[in-house]
Amino acid sequence: MAAVKSSDRVIERGASTQRFRLLREVAASPSGLAGLTLIGLVILVAVLAPLIAPYNPNEQFKGAQLAPAFSPGHWLGTDELSRDILSRVIYGTRVSLLVGFASVTAGATIGILLGLVSGMAGKITDTLLMRACDLILAYPGILLGIIAIVVPPLATLAVTLVLGWLFLISGIAGLVTTFWMRSAPGFWWALLSAVLGIVAGVVLLGWPVSGAVSLTLVLISFFIIEGVVSIMYALQHRAELSGGWPWMLVSGIVDLVLAAMILMGLPGTAAWAIGLLVGINMLFGGVAMTAMAIQARGGKAA
Predict the structure, then answer these.
(1) Residue 10 has pLDDT above 70, yes or no
(2) How much is the pTM?
(3) pLDDT surpassing 50 at residue 121
(4) Around 110, how many Cα atoms within 13 Å sit in the side-chain half-sphere?
(5) What is the 3-state secondary structure (H, E, C) of 180-204?
């Protein structure tokens, strides 16, 4: 009995040592330390939200509807219902942490249950569950692309929110870095870039519908520029491209037609254009990657 308890203590001590070693390795890495710091800041903001938020997130201010950023009393402005955006972003960290914790917990619970069923039910069930999990892990781009094509408005909203968070996080990181290295040349340009990133992120997160329209206008501009450049390149380099220049010419014309179709359908097309194109891109990208993997595997087998 004493030997068993001693063995348990050794195992627990080894597991604890391994956890501390992993934590030290993460903290020693600049990217790992940055990630830990960011997570710590988010948790701190969520815990101290009632103390650091200037207002109640649901409080409405008469006459302050859609106030711009840096308005008196509202650093990030107000939304359509005259609520302070900064307060809502601060309190929103609680929802983000709750969703993240719930999703990880749900995933771990489902994984444990599937593992138990797989181990207890036998070989056939185990094989079926493993192949289903392999399918989900191997073809995420294809599955997400199909979902985005089937429900493009949802995909458009998701893309808008993801870009909003990317702009906001990169802007905050840029702002901190800019003030940290304020003696370096180009301080004001770096400060302007960081502020623009924060403002763009807040706009996309605070008004995702308007943000989707803005992103659709950017998409239209991209199609127009790419179409014009493709047509000009095809016409100017017909001799060098030989038989390939008509395809490039057609590609440029298709870009211009797509731009015109999306532009003429605004604002309705903003609800599906980005989501549909992202879905098509993910679907064909996933198929291409799968085909390359199958080809590489066949080459190794040969």
Answers:
(1) no
(2) 0.43
(3) yes
(4) 8
(5) HCCCCCCHHHHHHHHHHHHHHHHHH
